[in-house]
Amino acid sequence: MKQEINPKNTSRAQAFELWMKSPMPMVTLTKTFDLTRLQKVSRRRGVKFNMLLCWCIGKTASWIEEFYLLPECGKLYKYDRLAINVIVNNRAGGICSCDIPYTDDLDKFCSDYMVLTQSASMSCQSSFIDDAMVIGTSAMTATELDCIVNQYTDQFCNPMVMWGRYRKGWLRTTLPISFQFHHVQMDGGHAAQFLEELQKTINTI
Prior knowledge:
- This protein has 205 residues and is an alpha+beta fold.
- The chain is 32% helix and 29% strand.
- It contains five helices and ten strands.
- Strands 2, 5, 6, 7, 8, 9 and 10 form a seven-stranded mixed sheet that branches. A three-stranded antiparallel sheet has the order 1-4-3, with no helix packed on it.
- Helix 3 packs across helix 5.
- The radius of gyration is 17 Å and the shape is globular.
């Protein structure tokens, strides 16, 4: 459910006043993650690496209350559930946007991920979930990347998690991940907490 709320009644009141009308309120943090365990789980279970990382992102975000808030068109909204957006290559040679509802049930998330992304790929149609707070993702695995800074538009204020190709070493697999967020939604400390907790989620999946 999506509900408009009064910013003054939230912990984001000051941030709303400071950053809602800022021409560039987006912030990007980048952290290098150890994804050795994620790669092992992907191989062992025969599931997509990208799907597992998306689930870990949703799992971690679900514990942080700021992720359920989103500034939009000069207003602040609160949601009661999350979704993960993925970009899908379609059979026409273009891309589609696909929202996957987040659930703590990894098997259910995996099933939804496979069904929805395959449908988008074959139909060349994007799918959206309007009543969930959507965390965007973008995996540009054609090359290794150190950092990604996304374009900013007032049409899309959602947080974005972005990465390139992972780096497989002798003993571990690493991946720099960029996290971009609207300063009204959260502060740098919340974003840093999210990145720290994301590594813990990956370590224990």
